[in-house]
Protein backbone atom coordinates (compact mmCIF):
# COMPACT_ATOMS: atom_id res chain seq x y z
CA UNK A 1 0.00 0.00 0.00
CA UNK A 2 1.43 3.34 -1.07
CA UNK A 3 -0.12 6.65 -0.11
CA UNK A 4 -1.15 8.65 -3.14
CA UNK A 5 -3.93 11.18 -3.71
CA UNK A 6 -6.90 9.70 -5.60
CA UNK A 7 -8.41 11.91 -8.30
CA UNK A 8 -11.09 10.96 -10.79
CA UNK A 9 -9.65 13.54 -13.16
CA UNK A 10 -5.85 13.70 -13.31
CA UNK A 11 -4.36 17.07 -12.48
CA UNK A 12 -1.94 18.86 -14.77
CA UNK A 13 0.90 18.15 -12.36
CA UNK A 14 0.90 21.54 -10.64
CA UNK A 15 -0.95 20.28 -7.59
CA UNK A 16 0.47 20.33 -4.11
CA UNK A 17 2.03 17.08 -2.93
CA UNK A 18 -0.09 16.16 0.07
CA UNK A 19 0.65 13.63 2.76
CA UNK A 20 -1.58 12.44 5.56
CA UNK A 21 -1.31 10.29 8.65
CA UNK A 22 -3.57 7.39 7.75
CA UNK A 23 -4.55 4.75 10.33
CA UNK A 24 -4.35 1.29 8.77
CA UNK A 25 -6.46 -1.65 9.86
CA UNK A 26 -6.19 -4.89 7.99
CA UNK A 27 -6.95 -8.59 8.04
CA UNK A 28 -5.75 -11.64 6.18
CA UNK A 29 -7.70 -14.04 8.36
CA UNK A 30 -11.16 -12.58 8.25
CA UNK A 31 -11.16 -10.87 11.68
CA UNK A 32 -12.91 -7.64 10.75
CA UNK A 33 -13.64 -6.53 14.32
CA UNK A 34 -10.20 -5.00 14.92
CA UNK A 35 -10.79 -1.36 13.94
CA UNK A 36 -7.89 0.14 15.92
CA UNK A 37 -4.92 1.10 13.77
CA UNK A 38 -2.21 -1.54 13.58
CA UNK A 39 -0.01 0.65 11.38
CA UNK A 40 0.13 4.30 10.30
CA UNK A 41 1.00 5.53 6.83
CA UNK A 42 2.70 8.92 6.92
CA UNK A 43 5.15 10.96 4.87
CA UNK A 44 8.25 9.08 6.03
CA UNK A 45 6.65 5.64 6.20
CA UNK A 46 4.20 5.61 3.29
CA UNK A 47 4.62 2.14 1.83
CA UNK A 48 3.04 -1.02 3.22
CA UNK A 49 3.40 -4.51 1.75
CA UNK A 50 1.65 -7.58 3.14
CA UNK A 51 3.07 -10.89 1.87
CA UNK A 52 0.51 -13.63 1.30
CA UNK A 53 1.35 -17.31 1.67
CA UNK A 54 -1.29 -18.95 -0.52
CA UNK A 55 -2.64 -18.10 -3.97
CA UNK A 56 -6.23 -17.71 -2.77
CA UNK A 57 -5.27 -15.80 0.39
CA UNK A 58 -6.09 -12.11 0.49
CA UNK A 59 -5.67 -9.01 2.61
CA UNK A 60 -8.31 -6.36 3.11
CA UNK A 61 -7.46 -2.94 4.52
CA UNK A 62 -9.74 -0.45 6.31
CA UNK A 63 -11.89 -2.72 8.46
CA UNK A 64 -15.55 -1.71 8.48
CA UNK A 65 -14.66 1.38 6.37
CA UNK A 66 -13.59 3.27 9.50
CA UNK A 67 -11.46 5.75 7.50
CA UNK A 68 -12.25 7.52 4.24
CA UNK A 69 -9.74 6.29 1.67
CA UNK A 70 -9.61 4.05 -1.39
CA UNK A 71 -7.51 0.88 -1.51
CA UNK A 72 -5.85 -0.30 -4.71
CA UNK A 73 -4.99 -4.01 -4.52
CA UNK A 74 -2.82 -5.97 -6.91
CA UNK A 75 -4.44 -8.49 -9.26
CA UNK A 76 -3.48 -11.50 -7.13
CA UNK A 77 -5.19 -10.01 -4.07
CA UNK A 78 -8.30 -9.07 -6.07
CA UNK A 79 -8.55 -12.65 -7.34
CA UNK A 80 -8.36 -14.04 -3.79
CA UNK A 81 -11.11 -11.65 -2.66
CA UNK A 82 -13.20 -12.54 -5.72
CA UNK A 83 -12.84 -16.25 -4.91
CA UNK A 84 -14.20 -15.67 -1.41
CA UNK A 85 -17.03 -13.39 -2.55
CA UNK A 86 -18.19 -15.73 -5.30
CA UNK A 87 -18.50 -18.63 -2.86
CA UNK A 88 -22.11 -18.51 -1.56
CA UNK A 89 -20.99 -20.03 1.76
CA UNK A 90 -18.10 -17.59 2.31
CA UNK A 91 -19.00 -14.16 0.93
CA UNK A 92 -20.56 -13.08 4.24
CA UNK A 93 -17.22 -13.66 6.00
CA UNK A 94 -16.40 -10.24 4.54
CA UNK A 95 -18.69 -7.76 6.36
CA UNK A 96 -21.24 -5.69 4.46
CA UNK A 97 -19.33 -2.40 4.75
CA UNK A 98 -16.16 -3.99 3.41
CA UNK A 99 -18.12 -5.53 0.53
CA UNK A 100 -19.41 -2.02 -0.24
CA UNK A 101 -15.87 -0.68 -0.05
CA UNK A 102 -14.58 -3.36 -2.42
CA UNK A 103 -17.33 -2.59 -4.93
CA UNK A 104 -16.80 1.18 -4.75
CA UNK A 105 -13.01 0.92 -4.94
CA UNK A 106 -12.99 -1.50 -7.88
CA UNK A 107 -15.51 0.59 -9.81
CA UNK A 108 -13.62 3.82 -9.07
CA UNK A 109 -10.22 2.46 -10.07
CA UNK A 110 -11.70 0.93 -13.23
CA UNK A 111 -13.34 4.24 -14.13
CA UNK A 112 -9.99 6.07 -14.05
CA UNK A 113 -8.22 3.27 -15.95
CA UNK A 114 -6.09 1.89 -13.10
CA UNK A 115 -7.95 -1.42 -12.80
CA UNK A 116 -9.18 -3.62 -15.64
CA UNK A 117 -12.98 -3.67 -15.78
CA UNK A 118 -12.76 -7.46 -16.14
CA UNK A 119 -11.63 -7.70 -12.51
CA UNK A 120 -14.44 -5.41 -11.41
CA UNK A 121 -17.05 -7.42 -13.32
CA UNK A 122 -15.69 -10.68 -11.85
CA UNK A 123 -16.07 -9.16 -8.39
CA UNK A 124 -19.62 -7.98 -9.14
CA UNK A 125 -20.68 -11.51 -10.13
CA UNK A 126 -20.90 -12.30 -6.41
CA UNK A 127 -24.00 -10.09 -6.20
CA UNK A 128 -26.12 -13.08 -7.22
CA UNK A 129 -25.69 -14.16 -3.57
CA UNK A 130 -25.93 -10.71 -1.96
CA UNK A 131 -28.94 -10.06 0.27
CA UNK A 132 -27.93 -6.70 1.76
CA UNK A 133 -29.08 -3.35 0.37
CA UNK A 134 -25.84 -1.32 0.57
CA UNK A 135 -23.68 -3.48 -1.72
CA UNK A 136 -26.47 -3.44 -4.32
CA UNK A 137 -26.77 0.35 -4.01
CA UNK A 138 -23.01 0.75 -4.55
CA UNK A 139 -23.05 -1.55 -7.58
CA UNK A 140 -26.08 0.08 -9.19
CA UNK A 141 -24.56 3.52 -8.72
CA UNK A 142 -21.40 2.33 -10.48
CA UNK A 143 -23.39 0.73 -13.27
CA UNK A 144 -25.18 4.04 -13.82
CA UNK A 145 -21.80 5.72 -14.32
CA UNK A 146 -20.74 3.04 -16.81
CA UNK A 147 -24.08 3.40 -18.60
CA UNK A 148 -23.48 7.16 -18.94
CA UNK A 149 -19.99 6.54 -20.35
CA UNK A 150 -21.26 4.04 -22.92
CA UNK A 151 -24.36 5.95 -24.06
CA UNK A 152 -22.93 7.12 -27.36
CA UNK A 153 -20.96 3.99 -28.20
CA UNK A 154 -21.86 0.76 -30.01
CA UNK A 155 -21.31 -1.18 -26.76
CA UNK A 156 -24.20 0.59 -25.01
CA UNK A 157 -26.82 -1.87 -26.26
CA UNK A 158 -24.79 -4.85 -25.01
CA UNK A 159 -24.37 -3.20 -21.62
CA UNK A 160 -28.10 -2.43 -21.37
CA UNK A 161 -28.98 -6.06 -22.10
CA UNK A 162 -26.75 -7.16 -19.23
CA UNK A 163 -28.35 -4.56 -16.94
CA UNK A 164 -31.84 -5.79 -17.88
CA UNK A 165 -30.74 -9.30 -16.93
CA UNK A 166 -29.55 -8.02 -13.56
CA UNK A 167 -32.78 -6.06 -13.07
CA UNK A 168 -34.78 -9.19 -13.82
CA UNK A 169 -32.73 -11.11 -11.26
CA UNK A 170 -33.27 -8.41 -8.60
CA UNK A 171 -37.02 -8.26 -9.15
CA UNK A 172 -37.46 -12.03 -9.12
CA UNK A 173 -35.17 -12.81 -6.18
CA UNK A 174 -36.78 -10.50 -3.60
CA UNK A 175 -33.45 -8.81 -2.74
TrEMBL record:
Residues 58-158 form the ERAP1-like C-terminal domain. InterPro entries: ERAP1-like_C_dom, Peptidase_M1_aminopeptidases. GO terms for molecular function: metalloaminopeptidase activity; peptide binding; zinc ion binding. GO terms for biological process: peptide catabolic process; proteolysis. Gene3D superfamilies: 1.25.50.20, 2.60.40.1910. Pfam families: ERAP1_C (PF11838). GO terms for cellular component: cytoplasm; extracellular space; membrane. Belongs to the peptidase M1 family. This is ERAP1-like C-terminal domain-containing protein.
Amino acid sequence: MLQERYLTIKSNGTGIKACWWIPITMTTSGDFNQTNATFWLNCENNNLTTPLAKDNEWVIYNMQMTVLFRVFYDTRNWMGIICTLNDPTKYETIPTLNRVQLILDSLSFSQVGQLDYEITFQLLKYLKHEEEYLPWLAALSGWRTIDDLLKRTPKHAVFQVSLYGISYFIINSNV
